């Protein structure tokens, strides 16, 4: 298990970064944060989410950190490492929360100093709101956490990252390669966001909220979307995402044709398969 005496630095104190901070502070870790908005630092200090924080790259804070967690957009993450990696202490471990890996992990590892190790991770948790003010460690309860190592990673760093997932409160910790991660995320996360966006944009009726039931609300919960972040993630994982979209379009078209052809047995067959597969998600 991770030594409680280590100093943790979180770079990017938004919803996820703030939720990490809350969870780690409750476990008695020393947590420092760097984020661009002073108001976020002020809020986090007031609410005792962090021990100290800065709205600029504080050299001492970076140099003292044993574990650095990056909660930034992919292009900002790369730029930050390029400009500031000289400040890391030798032996420091860095990790991230980035939603895509192939286009990030190898670039970071290639540019990073040899005495600092980057072990990628992806917390499969979130909310439809943003900012440290909406952060809560409760979003990790029952959720999944993915560690994404490469051949450059040591077993020590992989174990540290796995332990971090459990310390944060995640129920399951899995290990995938960057390619495996991006393929499965293209389906489980990015495709579902595309479907939600499409549902909200395919009908011009401005009064839908007056008629809708829970099914539409459930299906479109994630359509309240951060366009800057998700557009970047979609484009960085374009190949895997568009492949999943093509598979979905084929399956959706097949169901459409079955309905048009009034093929009751085949329609029910698909529904039985859907029910069987969905039941797996309800197991405790």
Structural overview:
The protein is α/β, with parallel strands linked by helices. It is 50% helix and 13% strand. It is built from 11 helices and 9 strands. A 6-stranded parallel beta sheet has the order 3-2-1-4-5-6. Strands 7-8-9 form a 3-stranded mixed beta sheet, with helices on one face. Helix 4 (74-84) runs parallel beside helix 5 and helix 7 crosses helix 10 (238-260). The relative contact order is 0.10.
Quick overview of this protein structure:
With 284 residues, this protein is an alpha/beta fold. The chain has eleven helices and nine strands.
Strand arrangement, major sheet: 3-2-1-4-5-6
Major beta-sheet overview: 6 strands, parallel
Order of helices and strands: EHEHEHEHEHEEEHEHHHHH
Taking Cα atoms only, what radius of gyration do you get, to the nearest Å?
Answer: 21 Å
Helix content estimate: 40-55%
Mean pLDDT: 95
What is the β-strand count?
9
Low-confidence stretches: none
What fraction strand? Answer: 5-15%
What count of helical segments does DSSP give? 11
Give the CA-based shape: globular
Distance between the termini: 25 Å
Structural class from helices and strands? alpha/beta
